[in-house]
Amino acid sequence: MLFRQFFDTTSSTYTYLIANKKGAEACIIDPVLEHIENYLKAIKDLDLKLVKVIDTHVHADHVSGISKLRDKTQCIACMGKSQNASEIVSMEVSDNEKFKVGDLELRALFTPGHTDDSYCFLLNNKIFTGDTLLIGGTGRTDFQNGNAEDQYNSLFNVVLKLDDSVLVYPAHDYKGETVTTIGFERKTNPRLQVKSKQEYVDLMSSLNLPNPKLMDIVVPKNRKHGVPLEIQMQFNGINVQQLKTMMNQKKVKLIDVREDFEIQRDGLIEKSIQVPYTQIENFFQNIELSQSTDQFVLYCHSGQRTYLALQKLKNSNIYHLAGGILNWIEAGESVRRT
Ligand SMILES: [Fe+2]
User: 225 C-alpha to center of ligand 1: Å?
Assistant: First the structure.
């Protein structure tokens, strides 16, 4: 497996580039905006195709590079499901859901506590813990709806249930450490030596840490990485009502570009066919659009993936559902469960 750890000295943030092998599909976890060009160079040098970029949570100490990487590479921006996630990213994963990056399979673990949107991501014998578990520490719980009780549960009932040999890659380290293991942290991490949840809560409430310097600027920025509806509409976007009118009047082919786990979770619009997002250009290359009387409507989770697809496809017979299936469901329209 190809694995590269980048470090941002300003915020002491670690970013991870992961792929199965040279030439394969890749993902990046917790990118920092200022280092986008470094990541892209590594991707080019290794002949990788970036297909997913993941944030473990909304960061407070650096501006995420998630939207810049999405726009530069048309990859899928991904976060764990939470209150605001669907506005920020194009794909949400829920607790315990698995998703693919090439041949690799990552599993999302919901681990609230540092923030209410914190997730860890497990890949074979590696776990990317964000700010949930750090080397010799744990993420603070005193802002962004952090909660020490939740973090205790996330640590002791989720992360520390993993085998001692699992390698732990955090989002930060302030002392130059790069990796640890579950077993080492279980034995030596001072925050994990508590005898009860209350002892952990008391420990976390006694920290009295200053807020990150740029928090008031960075957090609002990191909540705005998504593609707003009005921008989605500019690239042959249609709303739910327009789609229903088209379905009643014309020959419409509906194409769902989401992944299998999303379709199983949220259902799909009746009569749609599934074409993976990464295959959409190939799909249309095989269709003589000028000869076709069909109209095509693409949809995804929140419209952000199909917005990217439409920028590439640029054809007046291809539309996409702005707001995705989320807006369809919110409008009270039915979905078929698979
Ligand atoms: Fe954080």
Answer: 16
